[in-house]
Input
Amino acid sequence: MSEEQARRSVVASKTTLLGLVKHAAFVEKVWFDEAVRCRTRAEIGIPDTPDESFDLDDADTIDSVRRSYTEACAASRRATAELGLDDLVRGNRRGPLPLRWVYLHVLRELAQHCGHADILRERILVS
Output
């Protein structure tokens, strides 16, 4: 897929294939850097809202966004390496949550966005 295709908007929202991957990196950081490590979004350097996490900058490329996502996942694994599934994480606005809940929530969100990506990819490739 080309850079142009990855940025192409084919739905009314600002959701693009590249934006979905950028948002997935945001999700990793929200749940594993903010919620697990108790760091603020300002400290992490991520947007205040999920909607903003889909915004693409001129510097965002397939390689840079993929690298950001891969690095966020590696940081998530490091943040949880010493935790058990029933350990509570305390940095989320909902209050303390078991790590198991966080894993399932992130998995659900990623699965949902994979469905979105599949639809976008199909629309782009047939246009």
In short: The chain has a mean pLDDT of 97. The helical segments are 3-7, 17-34, 41-44, 62-80, 99-126. The domain at 3-126 is CATH 1.20.120.450 (Four Helix Bundle (Hemerythrin (Met), subunit A)). Residues 10 and 73 are 28 Å apart (CA to CA).
